[in-house]
Amino acid sequence: MEQPATTTTRSSRLNRQQNQQNNQGLNTQRQQQQSGQQLNSQQQQNQERQQDRQDPNRQQNNQGLNAQQQRQQNQQAGQQLNNQQQQQQDRLGYDAQQNQQNLNAQRQQEQQGQQSNYPQ
């Protein structure tokens, strides 16, 4: 009776080993499939990028967008320059006005001083 149990044990052990080997083979196959899928995905992305680079319409669209952005930046820079110039002109005008008022006040004081020098 013990021999069949030993045979069964041996058979079970062999079955387990066979199952483990099969599982290892399946796992390896799955890993290879996943690696292949990743590689295919990368290749497809690279191909799409290359098509984008080679597509003249896409290049023209990008050039148009770049030109539009450049125009907007130039307009903003021009507007900033205009604002700075306007501020400088305003400041110069204010300074000139202050100088004129100071001169007028100084002349009035001088005239009043001269008038007070003359006896009435």
Automatic annotation (TrEMBL):
In this chain, composition skew of type Low complexity spans 10-48, 57-120
Q: Which domain of life is it from?
A: Eukaryota
Q: According to the UniProt record, where is the region Disordered?
A: 1-120
What is this protein identified as? Uncharacterized protein
